Amino acid sequence: MTELFELHLRRRDLGRLVAASVALSGLAACAERREKIYPYARRPPGVVPGVATHYATSVVRDGFAVGVLAESHEGRPTKIEGNPEHPASLGAAGVFEQASVLDLYDPARVGGARGPAGLTSREAIERDLAAACAKGPPPWFVLEPSSSPSLERVLAALRRRLPGARVSFHAPLANATRYAASELVYGRALEPQYHFEQASVVLALGADFLDGMPMSLRHARDFAGRREPGPAMSRVYAAETSLTPTGTLADHRLGVAPSELERVAAAVLAELATMSETRVSLPDGLQAALAPAAPLPEAHAAFVRSVVRALVGARGSALVVAGPETPKSVQVCALLANAALDAPGRALTFVRPVLLEPDGGAPLAELPDALRAGAVGALVFAGTNPIYSAPELELGALLGRAASTWCLAHVEHETARACGSVLAESHYLESWGDARAGDGTLSFVQPLIEPLKPSVSVLELLAGLASDFPASGHDIVRETEHERLALGLGKPKIADFEAAWEREIQRGFADRGAAPSLSPVLVAERAVPALASALAASHAGSRASGGQDLELHLARSPTLYDGRFSENAWLLELPHPLTKQSWGNAALVSPRTAGALGRRTGDVVELRAGPRRLEAPLVVLPGHADGAVTLELGFGHAISENLSNGVGVNALGLGVAPGAAAHVAVRATGTKAELALTEEHWTLADDEVVHELTLRDYTQNPPHFAQNLAAQPTLLEPFEYAGTQWAMTIDLSRCSGCNACVVACQAENNTPVVGKDLVRQSREMYWLRIDRYLAGSADEPRIVQQPMLCQHCEKAPCEYVCPVNATVHSPDGLNEMVYNRCIGTRFCSNNCPYKVRRFNWFDFSEARGATVLQRNPDVTVRERGVMEKCTYCVQRIRRAEIAARRERRGLRPGEVVTACQQTCPTGAIAFGSLDDESSEMLRRRREARTFAALADLGTRPRTRYLAKIRNAEHEEAGS
Amino acid sequence: MPALFPPWSNRALRGALVVAGILGVSAICFPMVYVRTPFVTHEHLAVDQPVAFDHRHHVLDEGISCLYCHADAERSAYAGLPSTDVCMGCHSQVWNQSPLLEPVRRSYFSDRAIAWNRVHSLAEFVYFDHSVHVARGVACAHCHGAVESMPRVEKTVPLDMGFCLDCHRNPRKELGFDAGRDLGAMRLEDARFPAHADHAVTGLTTCSTCHR
Q1: d(CA B206, CA A933)
Q2: H or E element: which one contains A351?
Q3: Chain A residues 37-96 with a CB less than 8 Å from chain B
Q4: Which of residues 165-184 of A touch B (CB under 8 A)?
Q5: Separation in Å, CA A225 to CA A176, A199, A211, A323, B112
Q6: Disulfide engineering: A222 pairs with which of A196, A208, A760, B140, CB 3.0-4.6 Å?
Q7: Class of residue B200 by CB neighbours under 10 A (exposed 0-12, middle 13-18, buried 19+)
């Protein structure tokens, strides 16, 4: 607008322009513009314009695959769903899987190739790279951890061709401590597999098994099956530093600083070693090794006592889970405790490590010295960004010592910026590949689209260097699979391979691709002394630092992971599940620690670890461990053209690796930061919003919240309902707040991203948000996460205030929003007690960088001045109804699935018709713990919630 | 003092009031009428196409059914135009030297689409689904007119919301069921559709039927 006002027009000129504009405006209608239709010249088989198709592929992160189905509209991938047949997904998809489709269309993606002399071609770069690898000192490759059998073959060939080449597998959150721990306890590296459907009592030691582990989607589904209130309901104890989705659903949670976690784990094991039932399975001399250096605080000791009592009581169906990022000693304790509890073979099984070179290959820590010594020829970063993710190595200043530097990158990141040559990396929806899931299931990555920009995958790039391989990723993967199947059959060639291959690609994973379960034997000789020395070392370490400092806990970000998704606008804006912070991260501390510092949320503090320091805003998080500060990874990028520039702080900037013990000095700076916290937006101040109670109270004295649903008097005309009656039931006992539904809704319904400034003005556009409620004390809060979306009230307060009938009721019980009638008075939003209506303050859909190609063609793109809200995925309802009418049948039970329901890992959301007696939605709705949010307002919502039930030990009833 | 206004000024004033009244009413009515004229709805305007395709020849002379070329009408929201390979299915054999078919051959061999001009268009916020209308017994001609007798295709109905609602509010009458047409009998001959008790013709008039 400002440019307009800077026009220096004279009054008369302006008048002439206005007159001319008016006079000529009619001419626009004269030239008729015919819309064109472009049918296919040759129609690809199987494509019906207007009918979406789904292809099985896999999302691979840090080497672990999750099987997904990618939805394609005329060849354009728009949405990711879980693959119901894939063992790592079971139909669910997490936040990162859902958001991954946006990266494909990122306008800031690197395209093509850039050499030291400027823009060039992909072929030229590949040729130059091959030449650079062949001469001078041996090359060094830095890759993302991988489990790809094809990459294994390629690397073997590459090493034959380039003897001396070193390969590092680097990711900030990947580490090999679980392999080292099983090496000590079982004499070999093992990948633990947890079976939560078998576990009656679970102890999670720094383990976010519902959201932060390779098989989390499966864990969540298995776990949720044991959470129906009743005698079979499992009980979870969690000890963790910060709060995670697992801590949210835990029945008892203890906030422990990282060093205390080790002591709690040791205390649990020590207690088990004294008990006659469990002692027999444990090696001798364990008690002496575990003799604690310092007694536990009373709260911790009480927690340990009750945990051990419960674990031993459920021996055979008890499980101890240690997080993959916890120290080796914690994982050793967990393995031994599981052995004492008879978990192996039941709730715990093992497979051999899934990753190639699970120890990480050539240690990246040796790279700086090798660079200083001039012993590195071509230095190749493929899919990794160590200048950002390993700042302690100070590679930025040393890259010049390598003979040449190369980077295969998706976006211009810190390492790409510093490298001599940059090549665009293909998205997984554009390239072929293979990988193993967390349980070893061989999964395939199948592209849906030709690369949008000239690019190459890691596999193709390295295969080109190894040069004994076909040029296309498809042929490499196919060849690998042929070799594997042939090897399995003991034949050199398989006759009907084509049929087997087609079937595997269609399903997305290999038939006999799962890794066999192992039955390792405990070898105690090394475990006990190793545990003793590890505990002694960490006790010594914690005594040495002491003082006023806080323990530093680096955690995976639930929205940006380790920073690789930092250019994904959906994930940047996604509110943190617990702090509800959008567009940034913060130093998380407990209320008591914040009180000791004399600081509040929003104050900027300086954290200092040795010579390194960084400044971060403080966010007070009830339930966080005292004496510790949590920083989440993934933020603080500094590439000025990028979306993530200046968003949050880089937790790795302190030079501490995640999982390593460290202390930081915390000092207030006196400044305040402007945080985009959505927690206070849309606050619902009422007693009738959420309910939570313990299992004992629930079974002994069922509450019957539903009696407040008895029809309240209303002045509104009765409404005539007809046909199917849509309704939703959300089980708060299952909601971990993981955010998968929020992103799924955004992808399905073309919801825009608005940016930090507008989020600060409460103008975020989410149709589905998750409200976090805390009950109990600030030290031990009980958390209830409540997905809040349009409740589709039968007596909807929005409807009768709309002056233009833009929001009306449908006979099947939907509260409809008619965008074309809406004139933007916002009366409806003001009158909505649930605060779920969103107003388009600007033309977000036409904003610069809007990813038009990702949009769902079945949902209207809203323009400025229009109100919008959850529709219960009406496009999916109508699509199913049309299919049913076309085929002259009724709707099948469960035929309509909303986007949030489909992706939910725990199955918290159930949707269906009130007249379908077989539906899970209706079955849950009839439980005594059903309630309607704000029922006292007489809105009669179609969305019902089930009160959160905690399987707590005997204690007073919750509020 | 002579009269300021001559005697006819009374009549002039009355006349002016009448004219002003007519102008005022027409200022409101004219746009309402105008938007319903073919100038805006584009009815009865035969549209030129890049290929001189004549439906009369293909439908009446050769007896090719609508669904041979517009096959997606039964399974998709879009009836779709035939891809060039459908045209070439016949025209690689017959009239394969015809200069009229040069654009078709060029499209097929260069793998580039023929840019047809759209004749029937709906607003972007309308989600019309061909498949369900075809399955429920709405004849193609109900909305598209007698295409088989058009040398160049033209719109014969306005295709505005009023047109849709006429039928959706009273489908039995509009589709001829009140006059004895039997959808069940018609469709049961087709083996793809199992016999089903529910042949009720329903009119959906809730907003989200078409607007999502």
Answers
A1: 27
A2: strand A348-351
A3: 37-43, 48-51
A4: none
A5: 31, 11, 16, 22, 53
A6: A196
A7: exposed
Q: Which helix (H) or strand (E) holds A69?
A: strand A64-73
State how far residue B23 is from chain A, nearest Cα, in angstroms.
21
Element (H, E) at A533: helix A524-545
Q: Using CB atoms and an 8 Å cut-off, which of residues 784-813 of chain A contact chain B?
A: 808, 810-812
Contact A818, A807 (CB under 8 A): yes
Residue environment code for B182-193, b if the CB has 16+ CB neighbours within 10 A, otherwise e:
ebeeebeeeeeb
Structure tokens at B10: 């009374």
Query: Count of H helices and E strands in chain A?
Result: 30, 39
Q: Answer yes or no: do A41 and B111 touch at CB < 8 A.
A: yes
- Is B193 in the A-facing interface, judged by CB distances under 8 Å? yes
Alpha helices (H) along chain B = 8-34, 38-41, 55, 66-69, 84-91, 102-110, 130-135, 140-144, 161-169, 171-174, 183-188
B106 in contact with chain A, both atoms CB, cutoff 8 A: no
Residue stretches of chain A with pLDDT short of 50: 1-5, 956-959
Best residue in A30, A48, A859, A873 for a mutation probing chain B (most B CBs within 10 Å): A48
If pLDDT is split at 50, 70 and 90, which confidence band does B190 have?
very low
**In this predicted model, what pLDDT tens digit does every residue of A791-836 receive, in sequence order?**
999 999 999 999 999 999 999 999 999 999 999 999 999 999 999 9
Query: pLDDT value at position A887?
Result: 85
Residue B129 is nearest to which of A43, A871, A882, comparing CB atoms? Answer: A882
Q: What are the structure tokens assigned to A617, written together?
A: 């805003």
pLDDT class of B128 with cuts at 50, 70, 90: very high
Distances (CA, A) of A766 to A567, A574, A746, A816, A846: 19, 9, 7, 17, 18
Q: What are the pLDDT digits (tens) for B81-120?
A: 999 999 999 999 999 899 999 999 999 999 999 999 999 9
Dist CA B49 CA B116 (whole Å): 6
Would strands A909-913 and A201-205 be described as parallel, antiparallel, or unpaired? unpaired
Min mean pLDDT across A285-294, B6-15, B165-174 is at: A285-294
Does the predicted model carry a pTM greater than 0.80? yes
Instruction: Give the integer Cα–Cα distance in Å for A821 and A740.
Output: 32
Q: Tell me whether residues B75 and A51 touch, CB distance under 8 A.
A: yes
**Phi/psi at A801 (5° precision):** -100, -5
Q: In the prediction, which pLDDT does A118 show? A: 85
Based on its alpha-carbon atoms, the radius of gyration of chain B, rounded to whole angstroms, reads: 26
- CB-CB: which of B47, B125, B135 is closest to A885? B135
Contact state of B116 with A38 under an 8 Å Cβ cutoff: yes
Taking CB atoms and an 8 Å cut-off, how many pairs form between chains A and B? 120
Element of type H or E holding A615: strand A612-620
Please give the angle made by the CA atoms of A534, A539 and A540, to the nearest 5 degrees. 100
- The answer to whether B212 faces chain A, any CB pair under 8 Å, is yes
Interface pTM, i.e. ipTM: 0.87
